[in-house]
What we know:
This protein has about 100 residues and is mostly helical.
Amino acid sequence: MSNDSGREPLTMYMTGGPVTVPSTIRGVREALPESERAEFTAEIENVSADELQMTLMRWVMRIPTPHDEAEEALAERLAAGDLTGVTFADELGDDEYRSAP
């Protein structure tokens, strides 16, 4: 992640734990994959002020973040097509779905 112009990064608390993200538009742009930066710039420069914060947060959610070892192993297993232990929503009843972890 870039130095974000010397500003302190933000910490967002996600399901998997805290995630540190840039705190400026420039920092967000630099943290995005290069292939997404032009699209980000075009959108962020043209969004209305009342939508700026939500638009920025939507893009922040697209910044690649490192996984811990267990999460990385799970992601690799799923990407390889091994769905062992995966429960699909349509396999659950309404009560089970609402209480599923």
